[in-house]
Amino acid sequence: MKLRASLLLIAALLAAPVMSSVAAETAPAAAPAAKAAPAKPDLAAGEAKYTAGCAACHGADGNSGSPANPKLSAQHPEYIAKQLAEFKSGKRANAVMQGMAAGLSDADMKNISTWLATQKAKPGFAKDKELVTLGERIWRGGIGDRNIAACAGCHSPNGAGIPAQYPRLSGQHADYTAAQLTAFRDGIRKNSVQMNQVAAKLNDREIRAVSDYVAGLR
Ligand code: HEC
Ligand code: HEC
Q: How many other CB atoms are there within 10 angstroms of residue 141's CB atom?
């Protein structure tokens, strides 16, 4: 009897870890519901990808020093991700950036853009004293008699934009901003009907003026 009882006890003890390991194995099986939710952006992976492939042109912290390469720091992540997807698909045509975006997955785009949004923007400066008054007028009030909308209405008075809807422009290199406005006007950049309409009636002088004003916004 005594022997039998201790054998039963041993059997029970042996069974216990088996039982708990079964429980441990069934626990993750309940997890797929949580897994189905969209993955959280991975900031460290975004920073690593950006540093390896993008920093040479756009600056270590997204504050590019070259006027041809846009500053990306503090930009709304939805806007950056949209541009990367559209470079990749060819909807926004640019030989350099189409090559750069070709190798990025949706997750890469999300990680990089979320990391860039955490980087601090370095302020810029307006340089052209003669044009800046014209630039400010267009920014704040548009040009009524030619139906040109006020930039501030969408991009906000200080150029910070409105997250997810309108990109941040403040502090951007004037040369880059002017190039984009010209491309929107001439139908070369085709990924925003709104901006094609806004830019359609701007002349070169007005484009230079408003771009210079935008560089000094903060
Ligand atoms: C060889 C230089 C170079 C490299 C490397 C590069 N870019 Fe660019 N990038 C540019 C240029 C030039 C433009 C402006 C394109 C245009 O005129 O439409 C640009 C534009 C962009 C834009 C659009 C910004 C805006 O305000 O609309 C984004 C976003 C961007 N790059 C992200 C990246 C990312 C992410 C990488 C790395 C995977 C990268 N770039 C690598 C040169 C570069
Ligand atoms: C009706 C709203 C609206 C108005 C008004 C407007 N914008 Fe925009 N703008 C947009 C949207 C939306 C985008 C993003 C386009 C995209 O997704 O590619 C944009 C993008 C831009 C870009 C490209 C930014 C980049 O990083 O490449 C520039 C430059 C710009 N706007 C300048 C202006 C200026 C200057 C004015 C005034 C003359 C103006 N916008 C008025 C909605 C507007």
A: 14
Full-model pTM? 0.88
- Which two three-digit tokens encode residue 69? 């390469």
Q: Which ligand is nearest to the CA of 52?
A: 1
Mutate to test the pocket of ligand 2, among 75, 176, 190, 195 (most ligand atoms within 8 A of CB): 195
**CATH T-level topology, domain 43-117:** Cytochrome Bc1 Complex; Chain D, domain 2 (1.10.760)
Q: How far is the CA of 97 from the centre of ligand 1 (A)?
A: 5
Residue extent(s) of CATH 1.10.760.10 domains in the chain:
43-117, 129-215
Q: Taking the CB of residue 208, how many other CB atoms lie within 10 A of it?
A: 21
Report which protein residue has its CA nearest ligand 1's atom 13: 69
CATH number of 129-215: 1.10.760.10
pLDDT in tens, 43-95: 999 999 999 999 999 999 999 999 999 999 999 999 999 999 999 999 999 99
